[in-house]
Amino acid sequence: MGKLKVVVLISGRGSNLKAIINKCSKKNVLAKVIGIISNNSNASGLKLTGDFKKIIIDNKLSKKRFETELQNNLEKLKPDLICLAGFMKILSPFITKKWKNKIINVHPSLLPSFKGLNTHERALKAGVKKSGCTIHFVDESLDGGPIIAQVETSINKKMSSKELSEKILKMEHKIYPEVVSLFAKKRICVKEDKVIIKDEKKLNFFIKNI
Amino acid sequence: MGKLKVVVLISGRGSNLKAIINKCSKKNVLAKVIGIISNNSNASGLKLTGDFKKIIIDNKLSKKRFETELQNNLEKLKPDLICLAGFMKILSPFITKKWKNKIINVHPSLLPSFKGLNTHERALKAGVKKSGCTIHFVDESLDGGPIIAQVETSINKKMSSKELSEKILKMEHKIYPEVVSLFAKKRICVKEDKVIIKDEKKLNFFIKNI
User: Fold this and answer.
1) B126-184: per-residue pLDDT in tens?
2) What is the pTM of this model?
3) Domain count across chain A
4) Best mutation site among A113, A124, A129 for testing chain B: the one with the most B CBs within 10 Å?
5) Shortest CA distance from B143: residue in chain A
6) CB distance A110–B110 less than 8 Å?
7) Model ipTM?
8) Fewest CB within 10 angstroms: A103, B40, B118, B178, which?
C-alpha cells in the first residue's frame, strides 16, 4: 500500500509541520510529507530538510494569481491530504472546492468558539473555563468546516495568553500528526458534512484533557 | 445574616426554577426565591407553590412598556440576584445596566459557542466533541456576558438533539442552583468584567464531565 502523500502549507516557523514530519518518520505511519508550500520566503519552516519539495509562492500576488499558482503546484504534487499549519492566508472556494475534504487545518481554540485571530486573548477575556485546539476540514467558511478532533485544557485564571498559547501549541503538536496518521489508516471520512472516525471510541486521545 | 433574595424570570415550565427552589429549601443555603416573573401566563412554572410573589407581565406589551413594568416590579422586590431560567426575551440595556452584575442566565452550550437558539442542533451539526452549559452574567450582548461556570459533557455522535438537550438540562439543574448558593455565600464577584470565584479550585464541579 502506498503512503498517504501530504503537502503542508506554512507561513512561519512550521512547528506543526515539524511534528508531522517527525510522526511520518515512524515505521508504522503510512504517510509522508511530499511538499511544503509557503507564502513567506523567510518562513523558518522552509529550513527543515527532507525528501520533499519546497515551494514559495509570492505573497504579494493578487489572491487570484496566488491561488492559480497554488493550484498548479498542487496539481503537480497530487497530494492525498493538504495540511494548513500556521498558514496565514484564507483560501477561497477556488481552492477549497477543488480539494474538498482534502484540506485540514489546526485552530488554537475549541471551535466554533474564537474563530479567527487572537484566540487566546479572547478566550482569557471571555473567562471560558477551558480552551484547546481543533483539527477541522477547511471549507469556504473561516475556521468553520467539519470538526475532526478537539483536545482541551483547563484554563488557569492567572495564565497569560502567551502561557495558554504555548500549552495549546504543545497539544497541537500531538494531535495534528495523530490525525494525519488516522488519514493514512483511512479511518477518517466525511458523510453529509459530518466527520466519521472509525473506532473513534478507542481514541481516548480526542477527549483527553492534556 | 439575611438570605440572598432571588427573583427568577421564566417563560415556560421552569425546571431550573424548580431546581433553584429545591436548593434554597436546604438549611445550609442562604438564598430564597422571593419572586417569579413570567412573560407567559401559561408558563407551568407559575404553578409552583411557595412563599414568593408571582407576577405576569403581558408579553404583547411593547419592549419599552414591558421593561418599564419589569423594572417597577424589580424595584419593589429589591432582589439581590435575578436568575433568567428559560426566559425567552432579550433584555435591553435599560434593564441590564440598572441591574449590572445582578442578572445571571443559563445557556445550554459552552459559550461562546452556539449563542442564541437551536444550540443542540447546531452543536451536533458542527461535530463538536463536547457540549455543556454555561452560567453567565447578562449584559447587553446576546449570551455574551462574563462567564461564571461551565460544565461539559461528551457528545456521542449517535445522539439526537433531544437526547443531548435532556442530558444538558440535567446538568443545568445541578449547576444553576449551585451558582445561586455561591452567590449567597458571597463567593462570586466581578472585577474588570471578569468573574472571580473565591476558592474556585475547591469547586471541582466546574470542570467536571458529568
Assistant:
1) 989 999 999 999 999 888 899 999 999 999 878 999 999 999 999 999 999 999 999 99
2) 0.84
3) 1
4) A129
5) A126
6) yes
7) 0.74
8) B118
Place of cell 471549507: A139
Q: Are B164 and B124 in contact (CB under 8 A)?
A: yes
Using the beta-carbon criterion (under 8 Å), do A125 and B194 form an inter-chain contact?
yes
Contact of B154 with B129, CB cutoff 8 Å: yes
The pLDDT value given to residue A128? 93
Q: Which of B118, B129, B201 to mutate to test the interface with A (most CBs of A within 10 A)?
A: B129
Across A52-61, A121-130, B99-108, least confident range:
A121-130
CATH of the domain at B43: 3.40.50.170
The residue segments making up the domain with residue B44 are 4-208
CA A113 to chain B, closest CA, distance in angstroms equals 5
- Whether residue B78 is predicted with pLDDT greater than 50 in this model: the reply is yes
Closest CA to A107 of A147, A79, A154: A147
Q: Let me know the angle formed at the C-alpha of A6 by A64 and A119, rounded to the nearest 5 degrees.
A: 65
Q: What are the b/e assignments for B114-123, b being 16+ CB within 10 Å?
A: bbeeebbebb
Compute the distance between CA of residue A33 and CA of residue A46 in angstroms, rounded to an integer: 13
